[in-house]
Amino acid sequence: WARAVRGLLLDVSGVLYDSGGDGGVPIAGSAEAVRRIKASGLKLRFCTNETQATREKFVKKLQGLGFDISVGEVTAPAPAACRILKERGLRPHLLVHNDLVPEFAEIDKTNPNCVVIGDAAENFTYANLNEAFRVLIGMEKPVLISLGKGRYYKETDGLKLDVGAYMKALEYACDVQAEVVGKPAKTFFESALAEMGVPPEQAIMIGDDIVSDVGGAQQCGMRAVQVRTGKYRPCDENHPHVKPDAYVDNLAEAVDIILQQL
Amino acid sequence: WARAVRGLLLDVSGVLYDSGGDGGVPIAGSAEAVRRIKASGLKLRFCTNETQATREKFVKKLQGLGFDISVGEVTAPAPAACRILKERGLRPHLLVHNDLVPEFAEIDKTNPNCVVIGDAAENFTYANLNEAFRVLIGMEKPVLISLGKGRYYKETDGLKLDVGAYMKALEYACDVQAEVVGKPAKTFFESALAEMGVPPEQAIMIGDDIVSDVGGAQQCGMRAVQVRTGKYRPCDENHPHVKPDAYVDNLAEAVDIILQQL
């Protein structure tokens, strides 16, 4: 599975580090693995559904944890959503994390004609959910844009519901289907590949999410490897629809194998 | 549609009154209509998905609004759920409104092996949703029991997301299907009919919810009428799957027509 590769896409949370209220902790060997990828000459893209912070803030946190990463190397849902909003003249009501709001600074938010939902975390209050619902149900044709559709993720203090669960709540209440920006949307992986200038058959996605990372990348024609860190659970190995090209214990092991094949 | 009827099932919120933080306001003519049904000799059952209060408290509120109603006339989801929990030896983690908790007083809640979700309203916090999710995902075979699956309802201060939306969030996150107690579950309508001693073909359901009230009752072989009060919206009249046997402006009009046919 590791042959003829020119570019790697790395999921971040659960692959580089375990996130948490305290900022998170690096996964052993991952910072070193990123440095080895860069030294090898392979193209590299960090491909995250993180929507709890601007890319600037997100990258700063990872640098603080010892990772060699810059804003220009990150593919994330909020900038992708902004492109869609501008193209289609959509003015969003935002149900997102406070720290993500600056990504939408240049977008007109008056008199909303769509709702954008991200991983709002503590902003997923009863009042905020009702408000987003009322904006949606009040539209003649409700438009709901979701920054990802993850089910849940792991923080240092336990599992948390991810944006996908709240997306489903609004979808059901308003009888609409959300447009998903971010993994596993095909357009999202395609942007990351284009940014690297690598065709899908020469790229490998490495992630901890069997559906969003592995399934999504494979749908795009890439190979995909699941790490046994982050939200990985042993029952993922019996997933009814998705079978990774390989399992590895962690990012360091994946990079060992890939670099041996170069 | 109003001929050969021996029993009526009335939805409560949106038919008798519009609920709200202030206790709600009666819908004009509804209190009088209930009195006329009782005077006519027709059997009567109040069939509600209300799970924000015990039946005792709920009935007291309605009496205060001028309705002739008693606890013994009410079919509601919580007692139905308690029967299921006892039969199957299930110990619930409750995500319900504080005022509903006394309905579960006799149920063992230690070391939970299922989650029961109701319309928890202000209790639908980010923390409580994550907690219910963690209990569910921690089970070998998650069991989720939902007291209804309504999409939303109208209170005096606006539309609110109903239990169905939060049920969908947990279903998606845990990849399970909830067992729904309450309308539109067939067993729920069948209990109400049994309590009246009336067969479905001699009963009419009157409700404001096109799916839960009208669709559910029709699935049971009853006739069903939609009132143009409560959560009714004009677009309900173009519903793709459900067509009521009749529309009426309000309960009073339905009762006028039914009593003329006796």
Please describe what this structure looks like.
The structure is a homodimer of 262-residue chains. Chain A is α/β, with parallel strands linked by helices and 262 residues long. Helices cover 34% and strands 19% of the residues of chain A. Chain A has eight helices and 14 strands. Chain A has helices spanning 30-40, 55-64, 77-88, 126-137, 163-174, 186-196, 210-219, 251-261, and strands at 7-10, 17-18, 25-26, 43-47, 74-75, 92-95, 114-117, 144-147, 152-155, 158-161, 179-181, 203-207, 223-227, 246-248. Chain A has a six-stranded parallel sheet with strand order 5-4-1-12-13-14. In chain A, strands 6-7-8-11 form a four-stranded parallel sheet. In chain A, helix 7 links the parallel strand 12 (203-207) and strand 13 (223-227). In chain A, helix 1 (30-40) packs parallel to helix 8 and helix 4 (126-137) crosses helix 5 (163-174). The radius of gyration of chain A is 18 Å and the shape is globular. Chains A, B: Belongs to the HAD-like hydrolase superfamily. Chains A, B: Its cofactor is Mg(2+).
The fraction of residues assigned to DSSP E strands of chain A is 15-25%
Domains of chain A (count)? 2
Total count of strands of chain A: 14
Helix/strand order of chain A, N-terminal first: EEEHEHEHEEHEEEHEHEHEEH
Distance between the termini of chain A: 12 Å
Task: Please state the average pLDDT score of chain A.
Answer: 95
CATH architecture of the largest domain in chain A: 3-Layer(aba) Sandwich
Sheet bearing the most strands of chain A, described?
Answer: 6 strands, parallel
Q: Unreliable runs of chain A, pLDDT <50, ≥5 residues?
A: none
The percentage helix of chain A is 25-40%
Shape of chain A: globular
**Neighbour order of strands in the largest sheet of chain A:** 5-4-1-12-13-14
* CATH fold assignment of the largest domain in chain A: Rossmann fold
Largest interface: A-B, 28 and 28 residues
Family (chains A, B): Belongs to the HAD-like hydrolase superfamily.
Subcellular location (chains A, B): Cytoplasm; Nucleus
EC number (chains A, B): 3.6.1.1
Enzyme class (chains A, B): hydrolase
